[in-house]
From TrEMBL, chains A, B:
GO BP, sorted A to Z: respiratory electron transport chain
Keywords: FAD, Flavoprotein, Oxidoreductase
Family statement: Belongs to the FAD-binding oxidoreductase/transferase type 4 family.
Cofactor: FAD
GO molecular function, one term: oxidoreductase activity
The protein's name: Dehydrogenase
Residue span(s) of domain FAD-binding PCMH-type: 34-213
InterPro entries: FAD-bd_oxidored_4_C, FAD-bd_PCMH, FAD-bd_PCMH-like_sf, FAD-bd_PCMH_sub2, FAD-linked_Oxase-like_C, FAD-oxidored/transferase_4, Oxid_FAD_bind_N, Vanillyl_alc_oxidase_C-sub2
Organism: Oceanococcus atlanticus
Pfam families: FAD-oxidase_C, FAD_binding_4
Keyword Transit peptide appears in the UniProt entry: no
Signal peptide start and end residues: none
SUPFAM superfamilies documented for this protein: FAD-binding/transporter-associated domain-like, FAD-linked oxidases, C-terminal domain
């Protein structure tokens, strides 16, 4: 029997499809580098069916690509090698909510925004948030340890995970940590699965911690002529506030967003860079924010600024940052998602800036990122006249130089998007040969026949 | 050559000792169950020497016991089987501090209180705190993922760790996560080492996140006649405050502490249980606290209470909780350190209470714990007329029943003290056979010759 027939025989009939549109659509993520070449798409409704699927893969030696919302930016969910896509999208129930523990138990296919809304309805807050929240799924968030715009206060997806139900590559079911706050009984596999990009097991359910509902937001957008001064602005606001977001972006990015979405520029005087700052609205917050702003102007760090006067205006200001990634997609950008310790940013930026200027004389470079976490997205836009292949090979060469620079500054080649296929060959800039060897060992332990996402992450 | 000679030949001479007092003192932790039977004690000053030591152990097939302050309560640092104790106590430098990142880099032998003081001097806060902070070490805290009295607000030791330098059982050096806030480049080994109890590698240095300095504390001690009502009190205070601690203890424990330390009882009307609550002192906090207290009295949950009027009085009230563990040591207690989800506590307590009453009719049972995290310490006191061995075997049998109960309530057999030798045979109540098998595989990966802490945790 062929693989799709094997699957159809073992699972409810409507779980398996080989229709061309499905193979195409479920075979790609938001990278548009690798062609979709899946042989089938399986969409189970229950963890037992996931397990059956993994067992079949082991018995018959075919490969599975665990798949969430396919909003990933590193090719982790790409099936371009005759794999079977294992989509979790039908497992999208919110199984349980406990107000005392302030936790939810959800299936992996729950969409991030669905959980955010659910939490809000319960008077609580699910703080993992980013521009793809409307389609990314909890399973994908956990498998990539997604970050986003609220990390500075709430941490990464990892910090929400109190428990996981997984099916390992071997086909075993594990119940990890059972939602406990405290459980010191040996190696914490839960944290191993967070960020494992579908290479060790399929995440089927998760117990997640919710946060108290935050105060209404007060949002500022400040113009900052020199990039390094963004860090001075960060320090000034940090002294006065517990920040809930601190983002930055370059003017060329802003202009593209405004043009694409018919938005007015936030400031009458443009600046080379902008900082978007969010703090809790409360008594005196606006006065404090104005004082911090004026201090930054006096120091010459900030040229102009705006502060939200309503929730509506706060949301409008956020669009300038949130629409960036999607807007740039039109330019087929090559994305570097890098980080260094915040204290290392100034020195790193000087060198990174020089490197980009020297190596991409013909390309536009858009900078933005979660700079309060030391995380920058360097988007290299493809000049129209270049072919995709030429562009990619030029970018790959520069990524090697960027890798060397990151090594010198103790940084990471992937801050939040993960490794997947896109950064696999650059992994050694952040992880040592001994670590990569141990990663292979770990993979062999959980997935001895290598049925889960082969070729991703560690190759 | 004998082992001590091998070590003396390979390391600076004063690193190795075989003096009887040292073998005795370095061979035990705070459990007093297993006799010290170490063959040597090594106290390196540098990570290179640690590595040399692990390499020698691999070459010559002897066992090492990584050793911190030996305040552990599960026998993890016990050397009762002819092992070499590898003490980190001389590696006690604070290597680096960065105010921008609010982080420190410390060697493993830094004492917890030393780091707390250092952070305070810098205007910051190291929030991992418990009664053994004066002698436990950072390496031991990380290896056990220590919890303590501030978990409810700040999390466990795990949540502080931004980077680790370790020497694996194989003798390789790993630099894990390098202090980064965001680094999604594959399996996070850092979290695997946290809580690994010296079985995978020797933790030599750590990069730790410091917190902002907290406000002055306001402390309440409330008398609670029925244990289950402690949870109602918790919920009432949680509604009004972001708690920085919520502890509880039973009256028999309190009486012992007061007698041993000549302390006055906190309340004129004793109660069967007490809740100790800490919140930040700020405008209106005392009024809110009194309101919450009065509400609890009106509901019949609380019989009496006291609220601190000064920092001195707050510290005095804390002694009632902090002195408990040391005070009970005189009774050779058998400690159960268990947890369930907070929402499961009421149902669990009913059954646990009945079990203790039925199985320990002749023993005094002292209850206390970090109940805001679902974590209870059940201390069974040895009746004077019983031999230590009789007592232990009686307690072990009851621990099996407690294990069954925990399974039914989805709890953990070790919330914060770790497994070591003491809970090794009960690990299966919390981790499945598949998980334990995977733990063995992981051990084999990092420590193929089994030189690090053999027999601990997974046996
Ligand atoms: C506009 C835009 C903005 C973004 N902004 C951010 C941002 O700010 N921060 C950030 O971190 N990311 C960001 N991303 C990247 C992406 O959205 C996240 O990585 C997201 O968490 C991926 O979720 P997903 O469900 O789409 O996963 P997918 O893309 O479907 O899969 C991602 C990886 O996880 C694996 N996987 C998926 N589901 C499972 C499962 N159930 N079990 C095991 N493995 C599984 C896949 O095999 C793959 O390796 C952005 C993406 C876009 C398009
Ligand atoms: C009075 C009292 C109160 C306590 N209260 C609490 C509490 O509230 N919460 C809590 O969590 N614990 C508590 N404990 C338990 C204990 O203090 C903690 O587990 C502490 O973190 C142990 O640190 P240590 O340096 O003493 O470790 P040790 O006892 O020396 O070792 C503990 C384990 O860690 C390993 N280890 C030590 N150093 C290293 C290293 N550098 N690399 C690798 N492995 C290493 C050892 O092999 C052993 O397995 C208490 C203990 C006492 C005596």
């Amino acid at each position: 029997m062929k693989i799709p027939e094997l699957l159809a025989a073992a699972l409810p009939q409507d779980c398996v499809t080989t229709e061309a549109w499905a193979l195409q659509s479920y075979g790609c993520d938001r990278t548009t580098i690798w062609p979709a070449q899946a042989v089938a798409v399986v969409r189970p409704r229950h963890i037992d069916e996931v397990q059956r699927c993994v067992q079949l893969a082991n018995e018959h030696g075919f490969a599975l690509v665990p798949s969430g919302g396919r909003t990933g930016l590193s090719g982790g969910a790409v099936a371009s090698n005759g794999e079977v896509v294992l989509s979790l999208e039908r497992m999208n129930r919110i199984v349980d909510f406990d107000p005392v523990d302030a936790s939810v138990r959800v299936e992996a296919g729950v969409v991030t925004a669905q959980l955010q809304d659910y939490a809000r309805d319960k008077g609580l807050y699910y703080p993992v948030d980013f521009a793809a929240a409307g389609s990314s799924q909890i399973g994908g968030n956990i498998a990539t340890n997604a970050g986003g715009i609220k990390v500075i206060r709430y941490g990464m997806t990892r910090d929400r995970v109190r428990g996981l139900s997984v099916v390992t590559g071997k086909g075993e079911r594990l119940e990890l940590n059972r939602g406990l706050l405290k459980n010191n009984t040996g190696y914490d596999f839960r944290h191993l699965f967070v960020g494992s990009e579908g290479t060790l097991g399929v995440i089927c359910e998760a117990n997640l911690a919710l946060a108290p509902a935050p105060a209404d937001p007060l949002v500022l957008v400040l113009g900052v002529p020199r990039f390094a001064d963004v860090l001075e602005v960060l320090a000034s606001f940090r002294q006065r506030f517990s920040l809930s977001a601190f983002e930055c972006f370059s003017d060329n990015g802003l202009r593209k967003v405004c043009a694409a979405h018919q938005l007015a520029p936030p400031l009458s005087t443009p600046a080379a860079y902008y900082a978007l700052i969010e703090v809790d609205e409360c008594d005196g917050a606006a006065e404090q924010a104005v004082a911090a702003f004026e201090y930054c102007v006096d120091q010459g760090w900030v040229s102009d600024g705006v502060i939200s006067q309503s929730l509506g205006q706060a949301a409008e200001l956020w669009k300038l940052r949130e629409y960036l990634s999607e807007t740039l997609a039109a330019w087929t950008p090559y994305k570097n998602d890098i980080s260094v310790a915040v204290s290392r940013l100034p020195a790193f930026l000087v060198e990174a800036d020089a490197l980009m200027a020297a190596r991409y004389p013909d390309c536009e470079v858009v900078w933005y990122g979660h700079i309060g976490d030391g995380n920058l997205h360097l988007n290299i836009l493809k000049p129209e006249r270049w072919s995709k292949d030429d562009f990619l090979s030029r970018c790959s060469a520069v990524t090697d130089e960027l890798g060397d620079l990151l090594v010198r500054h103790g940084g990471s080649i992937s801050a939040e998007h993960g490794v997947g296929l896109l950064k696999r060959d650059y992994l050694h800039y952040t992880r040592s040969p001994a670590e990569i060897e141990l990663m292979r060992g770990m993979k062999a332990l959980f997935d001895p026949r290598g049925v889960l996402n082969p070729g991703k992450l560690i190759g």
